[in-house]
Amino acid sequence: MGAQDKEILKTIKSLSVFASSQVTFLDHLAQQSQVQKLQKAQVLFINEQEAERFYVVKKGWIKIFRETLDGTQAVVDILNEDSIFGETAIFQDDIYPYSAEATELSEVISMPIALLKQEIDDNPKFAFDMLASMARFRRLQDQELEHRTIQNASQRIGCFILRLADQGSDGKTVVNLPYDKTLVASLLGMQPETFSRALGKLKSETGITIKGATITMDDLSNLSNYSCAACSSEFPCKDIQKKSVI
Amino acid sequence: MGAQDKEILKTIKSLSVFASSQVTFLDHLAQQSQVQKLQKAQVLFINEQEAERFYVVKKGWIKIFRETLDGTQAVVDILNEDSIFGETAIFQDDIYPYSAEATELSEVISMPIALLKQEIDDNPKFAFDMLASMARFRRLQDQELEHRTIQNASQRIGCFILRLADQGSDGKTVVNLPYDKTLVASLLGMQPETFSRALGKLKSETGITIKGATITMDDLSNLSNYSCAACSSEFPCKDIQKKSVI
DNA sequence: CGAGGGTTTGAAGTGCATCAAATAGTGTGG
DNA sequence: CCACACTATTTGATGCACTTCAAACCCTCG
After folding, report:
1. Nearest Cβ partner for B232 among A74, A120, A239
2. Residue A245 confidence (pLDDT)
3. pLDDT tens digit string along A59-105?
4. Quick one: which H or E segment has residue B27?
5. What is the dihedral of CA B135, B137, B141, B147, to 10 degrees?
6. CA A58 to CA A69: how far, in whole Å?
7. Do B239 and A127 touch (CB under 8 A)?
8. Which residues from the 172-201 window of protein chain B have CB within 7 angstroms of nucleic acid chain D?
9. How confident is the model over B177-194, as a mean pLDDT?
10. A60 in Cβ contact with A104 (< 8 Å)
11. CA angle at residue A58 from A57 to A59, to 5 degrees?
12. How far is Cα A201 from Cα A227, in angstroms, rounded to an integer?
């Protein structure tokens, strides 16, 4: 086993969806896995395409989206390290329900989705974890829809920043936008211009400091008061945690 | 076994999620089930409340929603006969992730969610079906989010009507809105006034006929051209089918 | 330093929300 | 079967939020 293979196995083992899986299965998965480098803007697969493999992000950011004939696109999600995607094709006649594209130089590991099917059959705990992960995801999507319905642009941005912020620390909180503002805008369902203006408004209303992609604030309460007022969940949104399985 | 019990068992057996379950399990489920009548506007449960039972709609319409402190609400779904809800609480620490309320005189069957947990463990096929159902639902939610992003009010209404229309027949197509226009509006994320005006616009743009809750059209192509132009899925949306499990 | 993408700013337009009021529709009791 | 009460729906007028198109600015990286 090469160094890279070991690395892959380690990555796979660390994924929370596979927490209950036996080593033999994980080894098998790792054997069948492939690492793939993606250039910026490289498309990995498009929706309706036949699906044989699912993916785990190893490095970079992968945009999950769908687009209309005229090229307008709706961003479903933007994923980074240890996020899984493409696996829901198992349940959709082996067809990817969305497209995936690297937003920057990225690296993904792919594995055959057939193996997942097997593991669902063999390991009830795995099936349960996968269901739990799906349910969490549904909750997240519900929340996103809710946000689009009742929050305005500035509040959605505020919420996005809050979810990036580490809860723990006391003093100043510093948050770095993980990717282009244009990309954040598309994920939040607004135009780049709107994002820029709405962020400006958020700054004047909550006293946060913005310098490039870095946002600094004394404490989170101003921001949470501002954004979470127009949301059915209360601040730390502790009920929903992201990560794993899309 | 009384007549009502038989009726319940029949309903449960007919649910597609339970297609792979043994009769013994279904009997057990039916034994533990309860029928509940709900008045219009009666709340069945609210989000964050502890969940012991999941539900199947037997009659009427149940609104699934979340609301903010100031009472603004986001409608997640509106369910009717044979739709399941509340069952995702299994995966969320036995807490309902949304509220449920009858929009009219309704009837629901409730069953202990603990039994579902057991069945997931015992029956891999059931787990798989449930996963498939969840995946389908996720796809639906993605589509809804996409609609909010790239379709305008009239197009969303058109899409809603198309999904109600029977594909088969040739001659005129007649669609009846299944519930109040106000409720349709809230499901589509718009105000009642906007709904009314947007429906008027849809009428003038596509030549449909509207009389109360009844919509008539010569064929669906005008409508699908109008609405589906701003969507990543092509007309019959055949890839996604509703029903079962929320 | 200069090219190119990302970001901001400006000006104008559009779509939806909001508030207010009129109208249509439904169910009730007389 | 009609009149009343109440709710659902429509219509009008106005305002605001976001989009669009255009142009400037800024930052980074070769």
Report:
1. A74
2. 53
3. 999 999 999 999 999 999 999 999 999 999 999 999 999 999 999 99
4. helix B23-31
5. 100
6. 31
7. no
8. 180-183, 192-193, 195-197, 199-200
9. 97
10. yes
11. 100
12. 12
Distance CA A193, CA A203 (A): 16
Strand partners, B95: B50
pTM across the whole model: 0.94
Interatomic CA–C1' length for residue A101 and nucleotide C2, angstroms: 31
Amino acid, res. A208: I
DSSP code of B95? B
Q: What's the mean pLDDT in A29-38?
A: 95
Strand D close to B215 by CB, under 7 A? no
Decide: B51 and B57 in contact? Cβ < 8 Å: no
What letter would DSSP give residue A218?
S
Q: Is the pLDDT of residue A239 over 90?
A: no
Q: What's the Cα-to-Cα distance from B83 to each of B2, B80, B114, B125, B246, rounded to whole Å?
A: 24, 6, 19, 20, 7
Cβ contacts of A90 on chain B, cutoff 8 Å? 131, 135
Q: Which alpha helices (H) appear in A123-170, and where do they start and end?
A: 124-150, 153-164
Q: Which of B119, B126, B145, B231 to mutate to test the interface with A (most CBs of A within 10 A)?
A: B145
Query: Under DSSP, is residue B217 helix (H, G, I), strand (E, B) or coil?
Result: strand
A69, A91, A189 member nearest B149 (Cβ): A189
Chain-centre distance of CA B123, in angstroms?
A: 26
Q: Chain B residue with minimal CA distance to A230?
A: B68
Chain A CB contacts of B189 under 8 Å are 145, 148-149
Spatial neighbors of B206 by CB under 8 A, at least 6 apart, are B158, B217, B222, B223, B226
pLDDT at res. B169: 58
CA distance to partner chain A, nearest, from residue B70 (Å): 8
Interface touch A138/B138, C-beta < 8 Å = yes
Nearest to B127 among A124, A137, A148 (CB): A124
Query: CA–CA separation, A56 vs A110, rounded Å?
Result: 6
**Residue A153 C-alpha, separation from nearest chain B C-alpha, in angstroms:** 13
- B162 CB-side CA count, 13 A: 25
Asked if B76 and B66 touch (Cβ cutoff 8 Å), the reply is yes
Q: Which two tokens stand for residue B8?
A: 């319940």
Q: Are A109 and A82 in contact (CB under 8 A)?
A: no
What is the dihedral angle through the alpha carbons of B228, A103, B140, B55, rounded to the nearest 10 degrees?
-160
Protein-proximal nucleotides of chain D (any atom < 7 Å from a CB) = 8-13, 17-22, 27-28
Task: Work out the minimum CA distance from A120 to partner chain B, whole angstroms.
Answer: 7
Q: H or E stretch including A152?
A: none
